[in-house]
Amino acid sequence: MKTTSIREAYNSVRKYSEHICAPLETEDYVPQPVPFVSPPKWHLAHSTWFFETFILKNLIENYQVFDPDFNYLFNSYYNNVGERTLRTDRGNVTRPTTKAVYAYRQHVDACMNDLLESELDDAALSLIELGLHHEQQHQELLVTDIKYILGHNPLFPVYKSDHNLVDGTNTETGFVKIPEGVYDIGFAGEGFCFDNELGRHKVYLHDFEISKSLVINKEYIEFMNSGGYQNFNLWLDEGWSWVNANTVQSPMYWHKINGEWHYYTLAGLQKVNPKAILSHISFFEASAFAQWKGMRLPTEAEWEIASVNLDWGARWEWTNSAYLPYPGFSKAEGAVGEYNGKFMINQMVLRGASVATSPEHSRRTYRNFFHTHERWQYTGIRLVK
Amino acid sequence: MKTTSIREAYNSVRKYSEHICAPLETEDYVPQPVPFVSPPKWHLAHSTWFFETFILKNLIENYQVFDPDFNYLFNSYYNNVGERTLRTDRGNVTRPTTKAVYAYRQHVDACMNDLLESELDDAALSLIELGLHHEQQHQELLVTDIKYILGHNPLFPVYKSDHNLVDGTNTETGFVKIPEGVYDIGFAGEGFCFDNELGRHKVYLHDFEISKSLVINKEYIEFMNSGGYQNFNLWLDEGWSWVNANTVQSPMYWHKINGEWHYYTLAGLQKVNPKAILSHISFFEASAFAQWKGMRLPTEAEWEIASVNLDWGARWEWTNSAYLPYPGFSKAEGAVGEYNGKFMINQMVLRGASVATSPEHSRRTYRNFFHTHERWQYTGIRLVK
Amino acid sequence: MKTTSIREAYNSVRKYSEHICAPLETEDYVPQPVPFVSPPKWHLAHSTWFFETFILKNLIENYQVFDPDFNYLFNSYYNNVGERTLRTDRGNVTRPTTKAVYAYRQHVDACMNDLLESELDDAALSLIELGLHHEQQHQELLVTDIKYILGHNPLFPVYKSDHNLVDGTNTETGFVKIPEGVYDIGFAGEGFCFDNELGRHKVYLHDFEISKSLVINKEYIEFMNSGGYQNFNLWLDEGWSWVNANTVQSPMYWHKINGEWHYYTLAGLQKVNPKAILSHISFFEASAFAQWKGMRLPTEAEWEIASVNLDWGARWEWTNSAYLPYPGFSKAEGAVGEYNGKFMINQMVLRGASVATSPEHSRRTYRNFFHTHERWQYTGIRLVK
Amino acid sequence: MKTTSIREAYNSVRKYSEHICAPLETEDYVPQPVPFVSPPKWHLAHSTWFFETFILKNLIENYQVFDPDFNYLFNSYYNNVGERTLRTDRGNVTRPTTKAVYAYRQHVDACMNDLLESELDDAALSLIELGLHHEQQHQELLVTDIKYILGHNPLFPVYKSDHNLVDGTNTETGFVKIPEGVYDIGFAGEGFCFDNELGRHKVYLHDFEISKSLVINKEYIEFMNSGGYQNFNLWLDEGWSWVNANTVQSPMYWHKINGEWHYYTLAGLQKVNPKAILSHISFFEASAFAQWKGMRLPTEAEWEIASVNLDWGARWEWTNSAYLPYPGFSKAEGAVGEYNGKFMINQMVLRGASVATSPEHSRRTYRNFFHTHERWQYTGIRLVK
């Protein structure tokens, strides 16, 4: 990417984060209701800290940090960058205020714009690009964390009544056939990718048929009505324990009110739309549903090869592939090397993108990953037979 | 109390709660860092809910509640009043906003002032008086919960730089001797008291000598320096477990910085003042300190009888009395009966009052109570030999 | 006590512990199903360790310990005697075998008998006497721990079919009236007592009436059938949490089989005898039952004064007194000082004795104590009005 | 397999389980020190229950079960076979006694021998064969669980002084090169395999070099001495949390005594042999060690293809492959279908076999699996570059 175009990208991405937060009240920026949900204030500050720490501090001589305490407060998981607030304590840090965090953003944005006036080398440009993709990842988390905070409030407050984050429907039906053979997967070509999409390599696929459409609420309600949550034969052993320990009876955000299923959406509490694409289910639920259908989930390689023929992007789609390094994967030197590699264990890969994914932040080779019980993301199911 | 004087009292008490919160930022109203600390916003709403639920709903015909959801959100522990937000979830409820809670207060205050124009019967006046004492109890909790929220922020923000909540020193020394005999304790006479201060009854006391002064930081530092936290012989068995499980090394809010003891106060982080009265210690620490001194803590009856000769009010003083009903104690009918009686187990009585206690909210017969490990209140030690 | 009579006492007490264990299979000696239940093997070894550590090691020159590892394995809670097996790990120590523990007992008994041939001073005799009372306390724990181990086995094995540990019925009815006044409580006179029964002191009692009989199963079933476990107004707040967290529906060891209440007894599973004295209830249940009856539990002072007129000894009777030191209580020097004093917090006093208490191990002044949720002892209810 | 040869196999396998237990004391059969370790008594009974439940009950008309309670007590994880003892409670079930469990074995063995006199169909023979392989799996667990029970006893008792389960050394050195290409993996041919080894399928492997030898203690001590357990950059994120939460400093069973590393072996406590093959490490430790060496662990496909050129069988070797179904995997109907499939999540594959694996219970296609933190099996490391 060139310096000029990256400046535009920088300002556009940075503005988009604040756009997401525009409908919030000051109080909404604060809490961390569960450890995996971060306060919106924290996302805004942390994505800024990334630019300050990895770009400004390194490239501007005698750069004055905005506030020396912020490194402690807004480092996420980079052990190489020092001590940090315990992840579980983020919701208790009422100061700096939201206002101060916006001032922090302004300060860093001004310095970044100054910097982007000058000619930067490729290494610097790469790091800035990484910072933007990093912020886009946090934009999706901002949306899903806001949904979690508001959606677990007994008042079910509306985030925005006109947004497009509610439903999504399938436009295609039927199955795509893929023949057996050796295929190449992983990122190739120009442009940005994360390190976990490399190296491009060969895989052998056996023939399979993959659905063009994602599972919709109507189908999932059939699963529920047929006793899906009560039949242990459909579940992985850890999934069955999870169902019982948490008395799971439905996807996240679903509530049965006067005998009818409702769900919380960012536009408020609504009746479940039977034609809308199913969302907010765990890997365990995806796996049990597939078992019930007599089908299975795709592997990530199958998904990637088939994706040119698929209609995707509404939900992150659980695959039956564990998140592990590709052949030839190597992590970068220094703190940035902590970005992906150290999480390559005990998580499952999700492919595609969701209605909450930021514009221009999706690729056929993109590898998202979550633990098998997590479901506060816009997750869905695609079947293979 | 008469209706006119109760109206003055009402407005003065209600205003004082808001006065306590005046220095806060909006964000400070939100979090609940640990289950026993409630969000300031919650205190403001809950004390208002008390008047709406027990007074306005009962006395005003066709009273329109401000918001029907608030009963669910701001009931504390009254099972008789229905379902309520889980105590541990109070910090995640970002809506209603702080502004809306202030509007709630205004609404209820207006209705209460209207009501107080009319002639009210004794039962109603008693309940309003209870509501005011209830709000004063929450005022002390507001102060200590704000201290907890700000004092556990790595930035140690200042609440108010000119307040008087920091230190307190003793003005008297020496011991008072009390002769053996039968004494009367418990509330008697006119005016308000809580149900747990009744009935007034006789106790037999053996002779004892009680210190006129409270333990100061200097003395406690001597205990620490002599290995007090390492010597199991000084501790109750559960206290020793508590010390080890939590690696307790000092009172709450104390930090050793460059070899010197500091503590967080509402005026910010300061060097420990050796002459100031010790604060923020658990019953376990009070008991171990007394053991180290070769003395003991007073019983609550001893304290009450001796108190006319004591200089008290700076700290809640741990006694060696368990919080149990007095002879003849009976709880009120209905929800108000849940006020005190159901907590009479596994807690210890504290007597006196503290620098955070609201004006006119202390009595020689007042029985405060906390669990043996709790120390976020302004708690201190008085010795008996 | 004289040396000759103490030798008889020694051999009789020691034999009785082994008599209790006679019906056990080797396997029954091993497990610790919950932290508060110790393996029978451990009780046999620990009570022996007490004599070896506090008597033989001190009084016999060049005494050779039976096995130097045993101090680590069989110390219970004496910090002054060094490191020990974690309390929660006692059930995993399969070696030394039961046979080896019996050999340990034989070795110590032989040495003790030799020692008891010689003239011993008063301090030594006192310690031996303490050791015997200590072993008697463990005899009651042996019985209740065996009951716990066998009673939580899905097969409900029989311990002994002809024992007398099953039921107990009241022989008297009605209430005793005690007039108001100053009374003396605590141990006085000759013979042994534990340090917690001292010093004898005055208390002021208000008049009260105390039941001559203990609550029977029939009455408790009425409480259960009337919704006692569902009505929060009857319960202390911590009791209500305990009921809900543990879904408590009946006393310990009760099982509803085909609509009829059964309980596990040491003679096996039996139908609940409605006339038998209620057993195995927590303080919380005792308190809720009393509340339901419109009465209350006695204080320990009331119990002690009234006891000359009562029929007692079948159950440990929960009092509404916290376990705290008497005026003038002081703990002994050294390790023996850890015997009682350090447990004087967050427990309630029980008075009387039970069907599992060893012969000659009860006194009107005896202060037993357990936490409010514990119910594996033979605990019961006596009411006061 | 034919009926005659299967009878021989049956008796030989069944006898071997009892041979493993021969050195135990009765007490050793009882405890379950942690949930993943089962009591030896339970293994002996459960493997017998398998034959009774799946063979005798189905094939012998009017078969009288040995004890109807045993189904509840000795079912492991087969939901289709009904309720069972909670996994965590196995150590508290002192009855049936060990003697009774041996009688149970005798009874089932007699019935099985009778049955094996008759002509059985293929389905029956297959199930019996599965039962034998199942028992062999429990034989390895018997060895490792006995090691856990004795090895966590502070006395470090000896299991057998002459056994061969201690060390193991490498006999080869250097690396094997495998060229890139399409390979077939999974079970093929005659004989027994578990369902998880099917279906045989093609994989694409990139070229790699794999070590002929396993990592030895000396190498691992170098890793430890170089600060391996302190350098977060070597660890997976969950591994680093595991190290810190459990203060892991060395492989399981290692103890530093007077500055020298010892380990518990089934022959007792010994000095660590530097040349012996490393054992008892978690996947996290294997991964960190490989990272430190600048190499990686093999995938299970790489291992299987290379294995013809490797010297294996001393340790279960952690691979970097998640335990997931092969293409075409399908689980059997009924309870036996719970054997493997439901565990295919959040575990890693181990290949090879160990010194504790029963004779004739290993195959190049065998897929063992454990969670990433588990290390009470004989686990080791083979490196790939």
Automatic annotation (TrEMBL), chains A, B, C, D:
The keyword Cell division does not apply. Residues 172-307 form the Sulfatase-modifying factor enzyme-like domain. The keyword Oxidoreductase applies. It comes from the Bacteria. SUPFAM superfamilies: C-type lectin-like. Residues 12-140 form the DinB-like domain. This is Ergothioneine biosynthesis protein EgtB. It comes from Dyadobacter pollutisoli. The lineage of its organism: Bacteria, Pseudomonadati, Bacteroidota, Cytophagia, Cytophagales. The gene is egtB.
